[in-house]
Amino acid sequence: MMAASMANGKTIIENAAKEPHVVDVANFLNSMGANIRGAGTDVIRIVGVERLHATEYSIIPDQIEAGTFMFAAAATKGDVTVKNVIPKHLEATSAKLLEVGCEVEEFDDAVRVVCSKPMHHTQVTTLAYPGFPTDMQPQMSVLLGIAQGTSTVTESIFENRFRYVDELTRMGANIKVESNIAIINGISGYMGARVSAPDLRAGAALVIAGLSAEGITVVDNIHYIERGYEQFEYKLSELGARIEKVSSEKDIQKFTLKVS
After folding, report:
1. Looking at the whole model, is its pTM more than 0.90?
2. Residue 14 host element (H or E)
3. Sign of the CA dihedral 75, 130, 104, 222?
4. Are strands 79-83 and 110-114 parallel, antiparallel or unpaired?
5. C-alpha distances in angstroms, 226 versus 16, 119, 201, 247?
């Protein structure tokens, strides 16, 4: 869309993603003078313009970041209100939380998640928007890993999205991957371990597992997490998490002594 906005002639993008952030980019470019139509459908039509002009624009909230905090609330049996969100963008995430037994309360620009009862199993399949987002799949698996019964998670969007499973297994998870399906047998709880983030969303999911685990969890390779979450550890600590970003083995030892 960005390239086509100032290209000569008309560009048609077929099989386009329909996610809210795609629509938001189109709206932003249009506010600069671009001519983009169809964002939010699977066909986007762009007529190139000679130039774009300055604009002032407020971007939409990040529904994946919001969903991550919602799942963190559920995994830790918490009560968290996530503000400055668009609840409609979170419908698929909220629906799965309701399915496993959480309470979800929606407001105009906020969502409250309460998990006061044992969670139970469900089936999840990732789909293009407005289906369940692939970027929430690792977080969902962490949740189902400590839910009662056997759940399945089917990944229909991206290959290699289950690279976190080996790391989660170190924390006690009972997960078996067959092709693009993860079969998850719920356990009573995770145990703290040293794990490594294989990518952005999996890294956030491992942090959630660590928050709910007994003992101390160390997550390496957090540069992946920092790509998509601003001040992640600070926001979690404000919610009551005992979490710290460290840069050396000595700092890990200090943290261990402090929380022991």
Report:
1. yes
2. strand 10-14
3. positive
4. antiparallel
5. 27, 29, 10, 14
* Local structure of 124: helix, strand or coil: strand
Q: In percent, how much of the chain has pLDDT > 70?
A: 100
* 14 strand-pairing partners: 43
Each residue of 122-146: pLDDT tens digit?
Answer: 999 999 999 999 999 999 999 999 9
Q: What is the pLDDT of residues 75-88, one digit of tens each?
A: 999 999 999 999 99
**Burial class for 253, CB neighbours closer than 10 Å (0-12, 13-18, 19+):** exposed
CA–CA dist 89, 74 (Å, integer): 19
Q: How far apart are the first and last CA of the chain?
A: 52
Locate tokens 């906020």: which residue? 110
Distance between CA atoms of 91 and 93, rounded to whole angstroms? Answer: 5
């919610």: which residue's tokens?
239
Residue found by looking up tokens 């992946």 in the block: 224
DSSP state of 191: B
